[in-house]
Amino acid sequence: MSGELTTNHIYLTVISLSPHLCSTHCEVPECEDEEDSGCLVMEYKRGLPQVRVPLPTADQECLFTLRPVSNTVGDFLDMIKKEDQAIGCISVSTKEGVRIASSNAIEDLILEDFKLSINNKDFIVKIPERSEKIEDLERLSDIKMLVNQLYAALNVNEHVVKKERVLAESLAKLQVELEPLERQKMELDARASRKTNVMTWMGLGLMSVQFGILARLTWWEYSWDIMEPVTYFVTYGTAMAGYAYYVLTKQEYVLPDVRDRQHLIDVHRRANKIGLNLDEYNRLKTKVTQVEMDLRRLRDPLNPFIPPPTYTSPVDPLSTSLSKLQRTKDGILAFINNFRKK
């Protein structure tokens, strides 16, 4: 292979030595003849180092791509073992024979020359002069160290633990205050639900009675010619009743909305009788929701130090929202106002 250096690649020279030429404490000779020593090439491509290592059984070289920041020496050795199952003993050590731990990062390994041993066959890896890529890695390491020192100086972890403890204590106090109100609220909901169900079945019963009376008058007492205008006025009167409901309540006459409104009216009426402060209940529920959200954010293992999001109060369980008809009306008015401005 050619030993010529280019501007786009960084080459590492690997020299194959026999065991009798290099022992644990011997001086490692420099590579003088690249052709005779069987030099291997390590080059940077797309910012990552690629190492060519000879496999004992395959009698060929295998290319390995390393990640200096995320990979360790153990990852590098495991990759070589997976490619050749016949490798029984493999290790990385310094030139002086001191073994390098598998937990060391690749960015620390490529700072100076090291020795790679595969099945008692040693390869001395010559590290070239420092390049801009290695300096970038060093700057990244310095930034990581600076951030860790900043966290240590500001006691961020201790602050998070203290903040979590304060929030947990606050949540416990809020739950103690909310517990009696929650118990009374559940009783009111149960009574209001029973009353609403009774009124729903009563409405169905009244509609059945109306149907029976009209059927009796149509087919037994009178004829359809007489009852047709009667049914027309009954239908029109029902439409007027629905419109009157909207005029009085500013809500569309939709059965689920009517049921929820009646449920809320009954809850508020009974709450005033027993002295339950619903405003205080809603305030405590809002605080509990906010504290629980802050605790989940602090306990998130991925991003515990992100700033809190803008908090929006949840929909008040004891208040009614705008109906579809009201929203449509507001949209039409907004459209008319924009048209007038133009």
UniProtKB/TrEMBL annotation:
GO terms for molecular function: calcium channel activity; uniporter activity. GO terms for cellular component: uniplex complex. The keyword Plastid does not apply. It is a multi-pass membrane protein. It is found in: Mitochondrion inner membrane. Keywords: Calcium, Calcium channel, Calcium transport, Ion channel, Ion transport, Membrane, Mitochondrion, Mitochondrion inner membrane, Transmembrane, Transmembrane helix, Transport. The keyword Membrane applies. Residues 83-284 form the Calcium uniporter protein C-terminal domain. The chain crosses the membrane at residues 198-218, 230-248. It catalyses: Ca(2+)(in) = Ca(2+)(out). One of its GO terms (biological process) is calcium import into the mitochondrion. Mitochondrial inner membrane calcium uniporter that mediates calcium uptake into mitochondria. Mitochondrial calcium homeostasis plays key roles in cellular physiology and regulates cell bioenergetics, cytoplasmic calcium signals and activation of cell death pathways. Belongs to the MCU (TC 1.A.77) family. The selectivity filter, in which calcium ions are arranged in single file, is composed of two acidic rings separated by one helical turn along the central axis of the channel pore. This is Calcium uniporter protein.
